[in-house]
Amino acid sequence: MVLAWLAFYDALLGVALAAAGIVAAHFGLTPPFEGFKIFLVGFFFAALAIALGLLGMALTRGPERRSGQIRARAGVLLGLIVAAPVLAIMLRHPAIPINDIATDTQNPPQFVAARKLPANVGRNLAYNSKFAPIQQRRYPAIAPLVLDGSPDNVYQHVEILAGEIPGWWITRNDPKARELEGVATSTVFRFKDDFIIQVRPDGAGKSLVEMRSKSRDGVSDLGTNYHRIMSFFRILKNGPRVPPPGGAQVQP
To answer: Quick check: is 246 in a domain?
Structure first.
């Protein structure tokens, strides 16, 4: 059965391309976005294998076509290995056109160190005001974090905890301005996003923590920047106040 064979081979190709894209991006053989493109081609073949496999399964019923049924099922199962996780992510986080999230869209923190990084040469790091209404609709819960304590004490807490987060590299630490910048690297494709955290006074005995996180690649971040901010705010609210050993390495 031709469809069963096509499903099987398309699935093998999809798995191979998806794995190649992940390996190439993760180990720096290609830029992250190029590896992600290879992965997406693999996803296309995996989705095609699922469609052809389901059709092949419907057309190979009966004991006389058992071999075709097996190949069609194998194509579907292999295709799902690649397609199922991607579809699950897309269902949870629709690809809306926003890749820059800020707790204050009217007066977002402005990058300083990020503009000087070689990887950002030629990139526009200014906040796009068109993102504000999209963020308000998609992520209405995001807002500055109010904490008890003076701005200097809260900033010290921010500095300590930010330095302990895996995958974060601190590029600027300015206690006087109470601003901290860094680069967050994703686990699989090694995408790099720039972020900035700012602490401001907020009345007697309280401080306001602002944060902005921006992706370097792609039009949509699939919720990555939003979850980075919300996750760090949860750590600030619930994390230990005692300084742990070690700390972040600041770029010279």
So the answer is: no
| 85 and 105 both lie in a single domain | no
153: CB partners within 8 A, 6+ apart: 207
- Other beta carbons within 10 angstroms of residue 168's beta carbon come to 18
- The per-residue pLDDT for range 165-206, each reduced to its tens digit, is 999 999 999 999 999 999 999 999 999 999 999 999 998 889
Q: How far is CA 57 from CA 37, 53, 64, 85, in A?
A: 30, 6, 13, 23
Decide if 213 contacts 229 (C-beta within 8 A): yes
Measured CA to CA, the distance from residue 230 to residue 195 in angstroms comes to 13
Let me know whether 59 and 117 are in one domain. no
Question: Residue 56 corresponds to which tokens in the numbers above?
Answer: 């092949």
Q: pTM of the entire structure?
A: 0.85
Looking at the structure of the chain, the number of domains it has is 2
When the pLDDT of each residue in the chain is averaged and rounded to a whole number, the result is 91
